[in-house]
Amino acid sequence: MQHLAYIIWDFDPRLFPSLFESIGIEPRWYGVLFATGFLLGFNLMKKMLKHENYPEEWMDSLLIYVMVGTIIGARLGHVFFYDWAYYSQNPGEILMTWKGGLASHGAVVGNITAIWLWSKFKAKMPVLWSLDRVVITIALAGSLIRLGNFLNSEIIGEPADVPWAVIFTRIDMVPRHPTQIYESIGYLLIFLFLHQSYWKKKKGQFKGWIFGWFLMLIFGFRFAIEFFKENQVAFEDGMSLNMGQWLSIPLVFIGAYFVWKSSDRKIEPKEAE
């Protein structure tokens, strides 16, 4: 294979290293994109609350719940789903998120748990009402986070002989599928579909419709894209499907169930549990 035909990627993932190295910190572009996802999601959710005449003040507590749920869920997902053999021997490192290791499936579980708690104890609203709206913002954040993975040269694809293959020089000199970009674009398209469904098709009136489609599309796409990715941990090498795919399958079926059940479950204005 002729390397000149491919994209050479040697991006420094650090944020202005010459500026921050002098004060002993190393922020990354990934963190900027992660925070941008929360910021955009905050404003989008605030717009939806205003549109439905609910208190915009709810956003203060919702943001805290979602941020904590995302980080804890993503970290524990990585610990238990992907690297329990290591962390069971080094439990003191479980909370060291700065060393890397976050799992999107765990983030979803953490988010759902956090949104359930917020709905029950803060907003006093049906949890599906909350989920149908918050997952729109999560799809957008997912797109930005995968872009951050690309900037970090991580979660790389398998070797590929396609014109758009990328050589991540910080990893090796092998042309690979830019699966981070595939996922980023896919999640962005899913976000646009869910956003359109809420604002134009008024699907937010039906409990679980948007949430169900979120699960089906996000994890159906995730299942497919895993065929183009390198396995993230060694134990996956002997599996017919990797861990990400096995975790995605039940979520797709759960999503289908919620879409099916939503057909006759219209939410009345100001409905509370």
From TrEMBL:
Entry's transmembrane regions: 29-49, 61-82, 102-119, 206-223, 243-260
InterPro entries to which the protein is assigned, alphabetical: Lgt (IPR001640)
Pathway membership, UniProt: Protein modification; lipoprotein biosynthesis (diacylglyceryl transfer)
E.C. designation(s): 2.5.1.145
GO cellular component: plasma membrane
Binding site for a 1,2-diacyl-sn-glycero-3-phospho-(1'-sn-glycerol): 146
Keyword line: Cell membrane, Lipoprotein, Membrane, Transferase, Transmembrane, Transmembrane helix
Name of protein: Phosphatidylglycerol--prolipoprotein diacylglyceryl transferase
Species this chain originates from: Salibacter halophilus
